[in-house]
Structure formats: structure tokens, C-alpha cells
Amino acid sequence: MPRSHALFGRLAAALLVALLALGAQAPAAALADEVSDAVNDPVYSAEEPPEVASAAAILVEADHGTVLLDKDADARREPASTTKIMTALVTLENAGLDEQVTVEESDFDEVTAESSVAGLVAGETLSVRDLLACLLLPSGNDASYVLARYVGGGDWHAFVDMMNEKATELGCAGTHFANPCGLPDDDHYTTARDLATIMQAAVAYPAFREIAGTATWDLPETSGNPARTLESTNLLVDPESPVYMGEGVVIAGKTGYTDNAGRCLVVCAEKDGMTLVGVTLGASAAPDAQGVSDTFYDMRLMLNWGFAAWRTGDIVVPGDVMGRADVMLSSDGEAVEAVAAGGVAGTVPREVTLADLTLVPSWEGVDPETGAFMAPIAEGQGLGMVDVSLGDRWLATLPIVAAQTMELSIPAYVMWWLSDPVHAVIAVVCVAAVFVVVGLVSASARRRRSSRYQMAVGARPRVRPGAGGQRFDLPEQQRKAGRHAAPGKHARR
Q1: Which residues 6+ apart lie within 8 Å of 432 measured at CB?
Q2: Which of 169, 181, 208, 331 has the fewest Cβ atoms nearer than 10 Å?
Q3: Which residues are catalytic?
Q4: What is the DSSP pairing of strand 393-402 with strand 469-473?
Q5: Which residues make Cβ contacts (< 8 Å) with residue 23, sequence separation at least 6?
Q6: Which CATH class for the 56-313 domain?
Q7: Alpha helix (H) ranges present in 41-122?
Q8: Is domain 317-411 given the CATH code 2.60.410.10 in the classification?
């Protein structure tokens, strides 16, 4: 073989080996990508709630009030600056957003050196809207006292009384406020469950969602400050943060921290038609190398689990079969399907179907002895009510109706009626009475026919033989009547 041919063969073999190697690497790379995706996208189950580091936590589906996660949610704890959710709520209820408020020197009397502030200066004037941004984004204690003094009619203590009245109105039995900002006080406390309730009331205001859900807020120039931009302490809405939840997911949030309270966070988030409110209290104060503390990791984990493992929507729709009821004496069968006359909406684990629900019907109008309905039954006829539950959680009570018409079988009804001994005796008596009546009527009819016949026979002339031919023998009255009927005729003869 020429050397050129051998060289060409070796080059071809090398190229073939390289192509085979590339082909083997491609599936391996794809497999590695799939493994990476599986690791980064964990599978969540409603049966396995996440473990959080925070001392107390709760996750609530807001539209139906379903509690998805509860960790010491009723334990009394310090709320730190999550207090300012109530401060904002009371302000929104009692002041216009465009009202102008001038900062006074006395507003700083209660602001401690360790307080978080928005940099307000005595004498500058801002709108209530901008003061709420100073309250909620950098968590300014100075802004809390400015608003409390303004809305409280010159006395921030009066404003705190309004906060406590609102807490009572909302049913927050484990909450009491001593100031508008969350500084430590023995008489200042709440629970994770109560904070979730307060947040739900606050997000009903569009202005609260607008301010508490943004990462930044631009303030105009004032007499005491140049135009500036406020930044939120809530890392879940910061696109540069490693715990950023994505555009539009977190619609409102408020952080809090004191040495006694630890790291606290209250968030309202929306995704795929579901609204979740999460609260974490008492998380570790130490942030990691990325500047993120446990409270943010806990909240992100809770929200991701809630959105992935649960769903909100229709659980039962009108027409769903809720059970079957026995039916007697029908020509259409021995049972009728009972269907829901209404629907049930709620929050349940994503894998739940109608078959997973516990359905307990309460039939109305059944025979007490047999427990069955009696035909006829019309389509849509009410059959009773059904209790719908998922595990030990009651969901709703619905009316149920017949899915189809069940006609009455006349032969079956007759046999059923006669199966009762009393009815059987009544039937025998009735039949006997019918025979007696028929016999009496027949006898009466025969007597009447006989009487008419005798009358008819007695009225006809009888023929008797006589001399010179036959003679008609008329009754006596007719003969007399005949003699006197035409005297003139006899006379002429």
C-alpha cells in the first residue's frame, strides 16, 4: 500500500474516533443538565411542610383563610418594625395620601440612637404618601412618630390607642402596641397569626401595595433634604438579591429587627391566582456572606412550597357526583345519582381530586324504615345536603339534587302496597264489596227487565178460537173504552 494511502487511512480513523467521542459526550451533557435542573427545582409536597429556622412562622392562603404552615403561630413575641404595618394601616384609614405634613422637632423625642430612620429633618414638608414610603422602605422610626402625631391629633399616644382599637376590631387577641414603630417594650407584643391578619387588612389598600411592594421610592426635594431615593430593606423584592422572588410575586412586605425580637418578616405574595401571607419571627440575627439572614431564606422557602404544593380554585363544581341514593319502586333502576347543586372553592394540595374528599350526605325525604327514596323522582329534585371534607378539615356543606328522572313502576307499587297485611285485608274487603255491589246491581237489573216484560205481555190482546173465526179478547178496560168510544156508529147500524 502506498504511504499516501496509509496516511489517509490513519486520518480517517482519527476523525471517526473524534466523532464517536463527541456523540458520546452529547448525551452525557444533556443528562448532566437534567440532573442539575432536578436539583435546582425540588419537588414539593403538601404533606411535607418545610422546616424553618425562625422561632415562629405561619403561611396563610389569604382568599379562603387556609393555614398551610403553622409553627408556634400563637406564641407571644416582639414584632419589632413589623409593627409599622399597623401604623400604615391606621394612617391609610384616617388620612388622605396627598395631605401635607410638616416634620416637627418633637417627632424625634422617642427616636433612639439605634433606631432605623429615613433621615427626616424638622421643618420639611412631605405628603402622607411619601411619609408612608419613609415608614415602610427604610423602616424609619422618625416617620412613624411624624405620622402618629399627625393622625393622632397632635399626640402619638392617641394614635397608639387607635392601633390597639384596630387590632381588637380585626380580632387580634394576642396583640398590644405601646408605640408606632416597634421599639422594645414589655407591653408591646403580637403573634405570627395576628400579624398575618393585620397584613391582609393592609394589602386591601392599593397605596399600601404600591409602596410596600417596591424596591425603591423617589422622594422629592424638600426644605431639609435634596431629592433622593429610598431603598427597601425587603430583599425579596430586590432584583440584585440572591433571594429575589421575581417580578410581581411579592406585592407587599415589611422587615423588622431588634436584639430581643430577632429578625422578623411579613410578606404578601401572589402567583398563579393564589395569594399567600407569610410571617417569620425570631430568626437568627446574623446574615450570611451574601448579607441574607435566615428570615429571608425561611420566607422564600415557605412561599415556594406554598405555590408549588398547593392550589386555589374549584374543588367541587355543580354537577359533580356526590353519591348515590337508593330508590324504591322505579322502572328506571334501584338508585339515583346525587349531584352537587353548587360549587366549593378553596385551597388544597395540588394532587387532590374529588375522589380524595370525604362526602357525607344527609338525605331528606327518604323512607324511615328502608332509608330509600320512593319513586317518582324528578330530575333536579332536592335530595338533601352533603358535607364536604378533606381529612379532618371541613370545606363546605352543599345541596344535592337528583341527576336523572326515576319513573314510578305501577306493578311494583301495587305489589309493594299489598305486601302490607293491613293493606291486603283492605284490598280483600274492597274486592268483596265490589262483588257484592256488582251482584246487587245485576239482580236489580234482572228484576227491572222481568217487570217490563210482564207488563208488555199483559197489554197484548189474547187470541181465542170462536165461531166464525178467531176472536181477540181485549182487556176489560179496553172493551169498555171501545163500547163507549163511538156510540154514533153503533146507532147508525
Answers
A1: none
A2: 169
A3: 81, 84, 139
A4: unpaired
A5: none
A6: alpha beta
A7: 84-94
A8: yes
